[in-house]
## 1
Amino acid sequence: MTGHRDRSVQPRPEPPLRARLRGVLPCLAAAAALALAVSAPAQAGTLSISCGALGRELQLCQDAVDAWSRRTGHSVRIVSTPNSASERLALYQQLLAAHSPDIDVLQIDVVWPGTLAPHLVDLSRYIPQAVVDQHFEALIANNTVDGALVAMPWFTDAGVLYYRKDLLEKYGETPPQTWQALTRIARRIQAGEREAGHPRMQGFVFQAKGYEGLTCNALEWIDSFGGGTVIAADGRITIDNPHAVAALELAASWIDDIAPLGVLNYDEEESRGVFQSGNAVFMRNWPYAWALANAEDSPIRGKVGVIALPRGGDAGHHSGTLGGWQLAVSRYSSDPAAAADLVAFLTRYDEQKRRAVSAAYNPTIVALYKDADVLEAVPFFGQLYDSFAHAVARPSRATGNRYNRVSAAFYNTVHDILSKPDPVTPQLQTLRRRLERLSRGGHW
């Protein structure tokens, strides 16, 4: 998830990680190495946490760990890791493989528990079951590996569609319920605005860079057309089917039409930058972008609506990819009990409410979706509750520790489909054969 960062929040000047990390950083991208920093010199009894990637995450995390520090007397240093999920995972894997104690608490993606589980503490030893039970059951199940609760849900989300209420009103259009309707409306408003003297107006921006974000976008397109989830829950490879072909053919038609060629290099923040500057009609993104789009200095403040992502035609269904992040404790932490207490503090009701109200991060605690303050701050949380509670999961559980290779094969194929005017069907057939080899004869 590299790209533009929220420039309203800058990390404090920080010295580099301790020297033993030098051995694990060379194989990461240079940008990832430069991003790695800590907020204070290492000292006895100091915990470290990796958090903050998009929007206001870093500052929200800093405020919360400062509050925990005042409450407990412990010091906490923030480790700033790469925005890109792929680069962040690579960093984690190398640190954990080296049994490094340099990060006590790790912010992990919803698809990583199975991959990282051998290196993570069982939090059920430290966090009462009554507290665990407050969270979405599906997320707790996702974070439980071989009976161990290896992470606590911090915030969840699903892909949603942002739109310019003022522009749809101007052109007499209603929010699209199908991808086909979105295509038509985006093309019409884009042309009208350009003729009216807004040459930079785009119809639709989304995440089409070759990374995990494209897996999320493409899964939404394909699932909404009834094309499945690439790999079924029982491990069957399902990507090579006519519904998936139709979904990807439509998506490919957007490039250099309602979406700029540059979208092929967009991540979440690149997309938000275009939309929030007033240069796009529609945007696919995560809920975090709501608070930023409506910030006091936002050019589109008060002009934005949010709905569920469109269906793949009248026979399709709304589909948003399950996202979100968890907090886990490294087995190599020098103080796992204190680290688990920090996790419990950061994932509790009051803290999740603060993050929801101030920055539109979706809570993982069910009761917060009925909290009046939360619904006043982010009205669409209530309207799109079903989208969040029943989002489509990426096939990480079915593929286990091969998920990252599966996802890379998928998003690279989709990127090629979007980039080149080649027939889709042969490319999906090639992808199927590649996944068959990865599955070792159908056994993940």
## 2
Amino acid sequence: MNTGALSHLRVLDLSRILAGPWASQMLGDLGAEIIKIENPERGDDTRGWGPPYLEDAKGNAVESAYFLCTNRNKKSVALDIASPAGQASIRALAMQSDILIENFKVGGLAKYGLDYTSLSQLNPRLIYCSITGFGQTGPYAQRPGYDFMIQGMGGLMSLTGQPDSEEGGGPVKVGVALTDVMTGLHAVAGILAAVAWREKSGEGQHIDLALLDVQVSCLANQALNYLTTGKSPERMGNAHPSIVPYQAFPTADGDMILAVGNDSQFASFCRVAEHPEWSVDPRFATNAERVKNRSQLVPLLRQATVYKTTNDWIALLEKANVPCGPINTLEQVFADPHVIAKGLRIDVPHPITGTAPGVASPLRLSKTPVRYQTAAPALGADTAEVLRQL
């Protein structure tokens, strides 16, 4: 029996790529039944986004790693939404579902009678989440939107990378599709809020979620740095605009992150580094002065950190309660003893390969823990079963 926190909910997932599937995977991890609707010929676009692929024992490609990362705990139903039969099946499924997630272009589903207005008449309790690049309204509403575009348009790339004045300077995207992931997280929050409202009112509602809105809202302190001063923050590489020292520093065998969050931590670092005089120097004694005089302090720190290895620094600084850490490759991440102890790498049952690797949900619920029932499904694997039952 599925005892997940959301085991009473059924989600009809018409989304593709990452933001929508990330949201539905989270809901599936929490116990919801996820029915993923896919094109019968090609499926979700990310099935073709490879290599790399999960391979069987003979080395044959089974599924793209990209598709695997965001489609576990789902049933795949292959339907052609352009056909009357496919549309009728989706309407029937929507009448028996609690939540629908889609990321078609604005108005794209209306011509099939699968938009919120049409489906809410059949199922007034339906919670319908639309994910687009720019939202349902506004001058850009009809534009398609992908994560890379939105990282640029939403200001994130103006903050990421080395300063223009340095070698290799220029805007850089984040190494994962972070805007899509953040949009998926916001979708889950909005959906669960709508579920809570429905419990009181009995009514479903439409959720209009845009990648650009999410990206701008997640600029956090940098957005307020601009709004309070009228000056756009500039790229600073690994440095922090408001905290010093809070960046990467060279060591004898690589680099380490030093994340000093207050003056007492800085004083502790200075003692470990055998330069206690820095902590009482008027230029460096407080964070405000360190920010003002970062061009004088950072070179001194860099000259000191190169004389010990990363592991030596971490051992010394952790004893002194100074936040620090290595810059790990993914191989090192999944070999880290704490990551292993927390079980962040998982193996999920797969019908062809036996198991498929995955990354655990960070949600730890004491009464309704996350369950990993199935890996990402084969295209159309559940079509007959779902349509027969529902």
## 3
Amino acid sequence: MKAHMVKALNMALYQEMERDESIVVLGEDVGVNGGVFRVTEGLYEKFGRRRVMDTPLSEAGIIGFSIGMATTGLRPIAEIQFQGFDYNAYHHIQQHASKIRNRTRGMMHCPMIVRLPYSGGIRALEHHSDSLETIYIHLPGIIVVCPSSPYEAKGLLAACARAEDPVMFFEPKRLYRAFKEEVPEERYEIELGKANVVKKGGDVTLISWGAMTYLCKMAVEELEKKGIDVEHIDLRTLHPCDWETVVQSVKKTGRCVVVHEAVKTLGFGAEIATRIMEKAFYYLEAPIKRVTAWDINIPLPALEDYYFPDKERIIKGVEEVMKEG
């Protein structure tokens, strides 16, 4: 069936809750109202208030409750309405969720998912458009996932529902209803920790995730018309990252451009560039290029288009790398 990302995520939640009675959903307005973006619509009516729970407006409480449930036999899927509000619960994730397996030497696990509508593109207000996935990639013990399409979203969320460690599931808001694609009605999983080579090529490696993959696909079409053969990689899972696929691609192409919505300084692109330098330095024919947001606070909506990477900036970045070396 044709579905946008909201519908694909809703299908995944419905199927996972049917499959496993230990899965519960909680968060602000996820029950009666079906969530601020309607991702949890219909779950309350189907599974009832014992498995779909509206919570007080307390991110620390939502995550704290989830950790408690996860360590005592349940599999909570928590929603934080906007990723910019999850910092109130960061201490729970950093100090407890990420460390429980190690702290107990494997006696306890924390199988929970935190769903995070994140990034820009919808003209939101301050605190609603952050792209700070890197602070969770930095935490050992945390799985970090970011889908780029409806098909990817459903399969990745299904795989996360079977994971034994906590998952930060970043959902790019601008893609929620941006487009529809074929999504199987039956349940399926996409392997965690495995990148997707969206398109094979030989001239330059283009690395992205989330909404930037959508933009990169459009940029690749234009670049192909100009005779540049791009190999495009969608990381899917940011931690653990599929470094093997990244490195092998760069060894083949000799050039690399990384695109992300986060600011450049200490964004995940910096780590990607460093890993490539460590593993494939002698294969590089040009410096690695990063196309990112600017190192400033996210501006108010009128200037959002100038802040985030767009198709033109991606094309320019690739063309600059092709001219060097």
## 4
Amino acid sequence: MNYDPIKKTLGRLFNHSPFSRKVFYHLLDILLLRTWHVHKALRHFSRNKPAAGISVLDAGSGFGQYTYYLARKHPEWIILALDVKTEEIEACNVFFNQAGLSNTRFKVGDLTEFTQEKAFDLILSVDVMEHIKDDKQVFRNFYKSLKDGGMLLISTPSDQGGSDVHDPEQESFIGEHVRDGYGKQEIEEKLKHAGFGKIITQYTYGAPGKISWRLSMKYPILILGVSKWFLPLLPFYYLLVMPFSLLLNAMDVRQTHKTGTGLMVKAFKLNSDQL
């Protein structure tokens, strides 16, 4: 299924005012389990970090919800958000200016070409790498763009059922993906080849997360894929399923999973003292 048209519809629906955009971000924070995992990792990264002087690249910023989270939580950090979709970048620039978040800048750019030598303390890439064929070049660019001691944080589907693919003959649930998911060893080897010296990889979307994803994301997307006229019915659907989905999300974030349909990867650019 190509869900880009559905994303565009939702983005335009909530882009009428700064208030509706904030509501949209809040809904994404609640609904998307990956957001729960990413926020947890970002809170861990920010511990013992200075209030000012931290530079961040949101690599593949999409709707801008992670930039919004960081910009509000760390107003003295400087954030550059990059995406290939001009429409998304323009909408984010308008909203962030209206919201008075002057520590952010959105820019159209291709991650296979973008580098800023030793510019960032943190690079965030959420649900992006599964869309990019030349991932090795992107990882090299990320490494060059990180400061010594900086961290790359990746959230992406795994090869254990990511993109809802469970056998070689099955097609990806998400038509825009160029790969169904990464294996732990595969992504670690690619990151090491790019230069990263320390890599921590953990599964997300374990047993609780898989159920929550189907309830909160897969089934609604399938319904909207039939017709956008089902959109007014979604609030009633979520009223029924959200208590169960939120409980499952909390369980997934708190547990360590031996396998899962998602991967959370932390890759560090070691400085000379750490080598």
